[in-house]
Every structure is written in structure tokens, then in C-alpha cells.
TrEMBL record:
Xref: NCBIfam families: rimI
Residue ranges occupied by any N-acetyltransferase domain in the UniProt entry: 33-178
Lineage of producing organism: Archaea, Methanobacteriati, Methanobacteriota, Stenosarchaea group, Halobacteria
CDD domains named in the record: NAT_SF (cd04301)
Molecular function as annotated in GO: protein-N-terminal amino-acid acetyltransferase activity
GO CC term, one of those recorded: NatA complex
Region (Disordered): 1-23
Protein known as: (SSU ribosomal protein s18p)-alanine acetyltransferase
Amino acid sequence: MSEGTPNAGRDATNGSADTDADVDAASDPLVDVTVRRVERADLLDVLRIEKRCFTEPWPYAAFESFLDEPGFLIAEREGSVLGYVVADVMPNHGRDIGHIKDLAVAPEARGLGLGRRILRRGLLSLSFSGAAVVKLEVRVENEPALSLYREVGFDPARRVPSYYADGEDAYLMVLDLSEWQG
């Protein structure tokens, strides 16, 4: 799992795109990047990024199973997918829980704040879908992702031993959306 700001451009839940119209293109490397709901035609690009970013990549069918989720978003520039987030909401006794299941940014697009933008748009989508709390799992050694998640407001809830197939532990991190500053 890997990073602007949700903007007033368009709703994260309706498949629309960011506009960032009030940002000067010269000062924002993401001004021409849009975040929108994934479409079936995007899945191969998502899978390519997944395989480049993770040692245990999800199969195509896993992404396909989340196509209808409002929290499955991609970031693109000029038709090229640069990153994505997969998130959903599960009922939980009156306090629905959002789950960031997967987040990745293509290696050549890292360091620009794209993961932060995708994450925030995913959190907005989860909030609009009724989530009160959001959780995610992240490798304990993935410092860039841990830094991003802490910056956005996630707190480590516990360490999960041998969470990954290779034996590495994960942190379960949680964000209360009622306290989130977006």
C-alpha cells in the first residue's frame, strides 16, 4: 500500500473527476491528474501497477470483484493510469467500517503526492458510503506508506504477526472519520 487533497471538483462517489481548476499548473504537478471511479477497461492497467508494486500481487479476478465498489478509484493523466485505491464498506452493528484494501502508485509517479490524493478521495468515498471508521493493513517495514497513513490521520491499533504470506507482520491502522480533517 502506498499518497492532494480532495477537491470541490466532483463527487468521489459518482465516477466523476477532480478538476483542481483553482491550482496553478506550474506549481502543482498533479493539476492534470484526474481521480475517478474505475471502469472495466482500466483493470489491466491497474493489474500492471499492482504487479510492479507488490511482491504478492492480487490476481485480475480480485480487482474485478470490486468493480461496483464506489471506493475503487483510479488516478490518471492523459488516459494513463498512475495509481489506484480499492476500498469498501462493511456493516458493523450500526457503525459501518470502511476498509482500504489496496493502494498503489506506479513507481514513475511517486513522490508527487498522488498516493495522498487517491487515499483522501477514497476516504471521502467511504464517508459518503456510510463508513464511520476506516481500517487498513500495512507492512511494518513500509515506511513511506506508514508515513502517509499517519499524516492523513491513521493510528496504529495493533501489530498483526505474520500477516503476509512471506511472514512479515502488519500494522492494523484505524481512522475515525468523525475526527478526520480531510
